[in-house]
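Can you give me the bound-state structure? Components:
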Amino acid sequence: MKKVAVLTSGGDAPGMNAAIRSSIRCGIAKGWEMYGVRNGYAGLISGNIIPMGTRDVGGIIQKGGTILGSARCLEFKTEGGRLKGVRCLRQEGIDALIVIGGNGSQTGSYYLHKLGYPVVGIASTIDNDLYGSEIAIGVDTALNIALEALDRLKVTASSHQRAFLLEVMGRNCGYLALMAGIAGGAEAILVPEVESDPEEIAETLREAYEHGKAHAIIVVAEGAKYNASKLTTFFEKHEERLGFKVRSTILGHVQRGGVPSAFDRILASRFGSGAIIALERGEFGVLVGLSENQVKTTPLEEVVSNKKQLNMDMFKLARILD
Ligand code: ADP
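Here's the bound-state model for the whole set.
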């Protein structure tokens, strides 16, 4: 291995910069030449590849987002687009690629691997929906941002005896909603993985008041069947019968841009090093992730063909604790 490029792709996640920094510096420590690809797969296809030294990744560990830029690139979903990417890498004499990103990005990495190009993925997505890593880069920071919002809503909810609804991100995965709900002591949590009934939610909120609680908070995953918009419509329609109003807050992209937590910076530093070790071993077509607190690799084929499951024991615990 002589020349290795690093790319960030898909949704940005706090800690991506720490992963770039670690990959570049660990690669240089091996005596390799390191490169960065700008703007994800879009930059790869157009040959937007720049040399990167130790100083180029200075002062970025504390920054959210990605200094390399990210993009969503439709052309990369076609074989023609991917072949273009491989041609650009070969033209620059790049021997291997590190892809920092989530599900979509790692599907792209898998296809590159299938074309015979040496690639290693690093698990990075705030949604925590990536098979092959118990936790991905960005999850901890996003979770803490959601939790802070929840804590603030709780103060207002308690002061005014109002019911509040907080929608958090996560695509089709309920992890962020479930963990924010447990950590923030929500009365109800709605996730895509579990069927929910708005009448039951209304009943839970009513019970919360009857038990003397000063607040009632529902955390909803954006991918839940009854998301914030559908629940709001339901509660408005039945306000008279239910006897209370629900106010809705959609956290949206506010969750992404945070200053990466210590956990995310350390995880990203470990994953960057893990990717370089995998490349050194000649272990290609794998995802670097965390398993039982150890940095482990999982074949990308396994990653893309499996769906990460929500921990149902945690869901049951949430029901006991609400
Ligand atoms: P994330 O990696 O955060 O899940 P996306 O799903 O948007 O983000 O994927 C990021 C990029 O990865 C896409 O814009 C596309 O270039 C590439 N990608 C996604 N899905 C595929 C696929 N099925 N085949 C090849 N490339 C893909």
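A couple of observations. The chain has a mean pLDDT of 94. Residues 3-138+260-305 form a domain with the Rossmann fold fold (CATH 3.40.50.450).
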